[in-house]
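[scheduler] slot 2 assigned
[scheduler] job type: sequence-to-structure, two independent chains
[scheduler] chain ordering preserved from manifest
[runner] begin chain α
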Amino acid sequence: MARPKHKLSSAELKAKAPGKYSDGGGLWFHKRPDGGAQWFLRYTLFGRRHEMGLGSFPAVSLKAARQAAEKWQAVVRVGKDAIKERGRQSREAQRNLNILADIAKDAFESRKAELKGDGKAGRWFSPLELHVLPKLGKMPVSQIDQRDIRDTLAPIWHTKADTARKAMNRLSICMRHAAALGLDVDLQATEKAKALLGKQRHKVTNIPAMPWKDVPAFYQSLDGGTTAELALRLLILTAVRSYPLRYLHLDQIDGDIWTIPAEAMKGRKGATSDFRVPLSKEAQSVIAEATPFARDGFLFPGVRKGVISDMTMSKLMERRGMVERPHGFRSSFRDWVAEATNTPHDIAETALGHVVGGAVERSYRRTDFLEQRKTLMDRWARQQLAKADQKIVQL
């Protein structure tokens, strides 16, 4: 005959004398001599008796204690130890309390080696730091869903579309990183958030670039010998990006070749080798002129420490009332190559440091077209030194 359940009533619990009282179904009420009381579940598994605490009375009511007892008895009925199972669930819940801010920092640290300059410039982390972590940083990553992400990025989704896209991308990486750590996260949360936010209303705007026919006059006007002017001249002559130029170290130069370390090159995903830049006679002359100002081996040092900032050259152009930006000279160079030379596409793209072709094609083609690019960069340098009234010769 089954033992009757629910022997106790809420009204009598406070008046109970010290002792242990069964409510049935394995649930017990223990009244201590000091007046305190607690619940515990008594169960037998594999021939051994166990007692599992279920909380103090009256913080845990009789009804709540009965519900807890039934929950854990169900676990025992399938052959599991209720105490061990509760511990496992508690550890899992604790693990899932990892907040997004900590996950984001860990994800950033694990990816530093993949980022330009080990991510020291902060550009990878800043979209998260500025637009995501202030609102979601303290939330357990396992509790973040698409609505949280939508509400966080909605204010900039259309007004700062590119920044919002980067923030969403970084957040997706953080969610995948959390999953790799064994946390219970929704890997589709960012995609769902995009669906809720809708298609971005923005137009891609290119960085203003100077027409290639106007570059020589500007180049020749950079005659003050300042660090910013010398840096701009070398930027124009080599058609490289600002970062590797600003961090140009004298030990990277060997004669008429400047070797940029692979980690300093952007836009070369899939390429692991350094990038060789041929230096024209004019480029070598600029380097020689700048060398006396070098500090700690860096050709273009900053005023106080480090190297010149990303804005140094831009500010020089702004002060002259120009809307064009230094990065635009890469476009100027590329337009000149297309319009005034018969340079093959692969050589032109390689001159800009772009990876050309798929992985299989690159595995068979090992050349970086250095000799052809030397000729091309010599022609580009002569273009900058041409007089204003000199006829442009098709090359």
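[runner] end chain α
[runner] begin chain β
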Amino acid sequence: MGVLAGREWPRPAGGDDRGRVVTCDLAFDVQEPADIAVQIAPAERGGRMHAERLELAIDGAPLAPPVELAAPHGGRIHLLRVPRGLFAASYRADLDSPRPRPGPHPTGVAGDEPLDLQRLTYLRPSRYCPSDHVVGLAVAEFGALPQGRPRVDAVVDWIHHRIGYVAGASTVHDTAEDTLLTGQGVCRDFAHLGVTLCRALGIPARFTAVYAPGLTPMDFHAVFEAWTDGAWHVHDPTRRVPRDGLVRIATGRDAADTAFAAVLGGIATLRSVEVTATVTGLLPADDHRAEAVLA
């Protein structure tokens, strides 16, 4: 699934018609030549790819294709070297449904790090998820519940009912502690808080950036996954979209690992970002207490 100006794969006969189309358009004002890393392509496990196109331009002139790096859990990072000017990146992918499914998730998938190392990594505090600071709260609120899935379900319910979804209520510097103090945030804050409380309870949890058909207004979306009953189950405390339509982009400890764009060197300012995610047919209603595993 390499990166190219344009590439297509034939659809298999009799395949799943419940496809997904995702797009992202970015624009940067580049004041000094910059190195930019973007994570906007679906993860390798995000569904069978039928076509993808990545077009890069500076002041309207085409740029050479970027370098693609493999990130954890099938993620794809594209490294761009951009000269001064107005930089534009336009991405589109057409893929089959990467539908979450109930039941155990396969372990030992080729290319994954060992699961015991995953669990260790996602138990530790991280930049936006200072789980060691909220152990007292987590134990007081959820410690009386049976371990594992009952605690995760209670965490998701607690966040959904206690935290208000308010557009623009937080900044890129806010951690889960800020969300607890203000009682409001957006999807990344809800996901960070879910990760933080789960880790404080001894449950491995990780942050996942996704495309989300059905989201209004349309944007990138964030959910979290918790390790229970031998699987990474996906949870969305915002309950704003059906998990059935989610397309994995990037997975990590928190938003620092999954940012859609990061300026690594030089000077560049994000001017605009537009995201779309559509699905063929109707998205079903989601019972958010049901088990689901994201592809």
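[runner] end chain β
[qc] chain β: The longest helix spans residues 149-162.
[scheduler] slot 2 released
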